[in-house]
Amino acid sequence: MKKSKLKIKKNLLEDLSDEEVAQKEKEYYDSHKNLKLTPTSFRTPYGRKVYRDQYGGVHSESTTTLQDSKGRWMNIPTIYNGEYVNEKLAKDIIEDNNYIDPETNKKIQTFKTHEAAIKQAINRNRSLNKTNQSWNKLKIKKHGNIK
Predict the structure, then answer these.
(1) Concatenated DSSP letters for 100-119?
(2) 3-state DSSP call for residue 53?
(3) Cys-Cys crosslink for 35: which of 22, 30, 53, 131, Cβ 3.0 to 4.6 Å?
(4) This model's pTM is above 0.85
(5) Is 13 inside any structural domain?
(6) How many structural domains is the chain composed of?
(7) Residues 47-106: pLDDT tens digits?
(8) Are 34 and 55 in contact (CB under 8 A)?
(9) What is the pLDDT of residues 123-145, one digit of tens each?
């Protein structure tokens, strides 16, 4: 009898291409409207609070990539005070606060190109989905982590 090897994932997104990650996230948000977020005791390495929704999903910032009023590109959170906000309101919050995230007091990075902003957003998303991050144990308990 041949033993099967179990592979423990180091990143919840490791088997997915960037396009597949974007598609899965879109599908989740399209099928889960009116998310109610409950704070957990966790914070990301970037200082954002981690929330759990009524379906068991884990959220911390859910960024969007858009141009600011000066034509620069930026990745900004769409969760403030435990609630999702639309892109316009998220942009207004950041610009009205001089490009400082009001929840972390950290400066929002801007980029000359859309491509550079997207690349940074992908890297950040993947860094937030490492299985050794304490809040991701919430996902592992619910969904499992063995391939």
Answers:
(1) EETTTTEEPPEESSHHHHHH
(2) strand
(3) 53
(4) no
(5) no
(6) 1
(7) 999 999 998 888 888 889 999 999 999 999 999 999 999 999 999 999 999 999 999 999
(8) no
(9) 888 888 777 767 666 654 454 43
Within 10 Å of residue 47's Cβ, how many Cβ atoms? 13
Q: Beta strands 64-67 and 49-53: pairing type?
A: unpaired
User: In DSSP terms, which residues pair with 76 in a beta bridge?
Assistant: 64
131: exposed, middle or buried (Cβ count in 10 Å: 0-12, 13-18, 19+)? middle
> How many C-beta neighbours within 10 Å does residue 78 have?
18
Could you tell me the residue range of the domain that residue 89 belongs to? Answer: 18-143
Instruction: Specify if 1 maps to a domain.
Output: no
**CA neighbor of 35 nearest in space, from 11, 12, 62:** 62
- Domain annotation covers residue 101: yes
CA distances to 13, 43, 45, 89, 140 from 134, rounded to whole Å, are 16, 9, 11, 30, 10
